[in-house]
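Reply to dn_fold:

You asked what the input looked like. This is it:
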Amino acid sequence: MPRKFTNIPTNMVMGFLGAGKTTAILNLLKQKPADEKWAVLVNEFGQVGIDGAIFAASDAIVKEVPGGCLCCAVGLPFQVAVNRLLTEVKPDRLLIEPTGLGHPKRVLDRLAEGYFRTVLDVRANICLVDPRKLSDSRYTSYENFVDQIALSDVLVANKMDLADKAATQLFERWADRSRPRKTVIAQTVQGQLDVAWLDLMRNPERQASFPNAHQTRSIHRTAETALENKNQLKSNAADGYQSYGTVFPEHSCFDYARTTRLLNNLEAERIKAVFATNKGWFIFNAVDGVMTIVPCKPSANSRIEIVATQNNCQDISTELSHCIVNRC
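and this is what came back:
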């Protein structure tokens, strides 16, 4: 007899670009009970899914909704993605990672009302913040950033190893003035979250300051690949941010040193990539000009997603094609 899905514990893990959401979810997955099956619904601003590939490389059960934020695709595509994930995986818990550029209100409304009201048990929403950003008006005046914090039950200052005393005090002031008060206010490094926070109650009284924020449009461009085929360089634009993404043909092998040098010299708000190189498979992750590179399990294809505020990444597919070598 088919299983009827009811009251599946569900949490949303929010945070702006580079706050550490993916790392935090990977750490939560390491803490899950051995007899439980957890699934992750990943939404990315760009057309090319990178986080899904990262989760898959870590043996996580994942479903992607790329090509815009969940708050803009919260209708049928969102419902279909959740239903498919529940049907195929039959999870004991669902974790949702919305894009850092997204606004959480419409997603929360969809999860807690209507069709999903009895299917999902929406519990505490977690928001990660890089406290160094709280002194930058580009972030603190950005409506989505403000409401991610406002609608969270658990507010976590991540990357505390990089924060100075002024940034720490600024985070504490932001947290203290939140109303209703946060259920948990915490500080951590490397996205280390307490798995017990997932079972805290969500406070439905939390209100967004900008409930109607955020509009998105999509555009597409083309670029030349290394194999002289036309590979689509897919792009989204929203709120002054532009994303550029490319999936490379299977068996493409990149020169590690040349690729690293190219990405390090690229001016962008955010870079995420999974590449097969002549030194193995690696995840390339850059924010604020700082690149981290970690080995990973093989993925189906090499791929990259870049978020920038200027149109300076349109030729990245062609430039990366020059980093391809004959074999890995």
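The mean pLDDT is 83.
Hope that clears it up.
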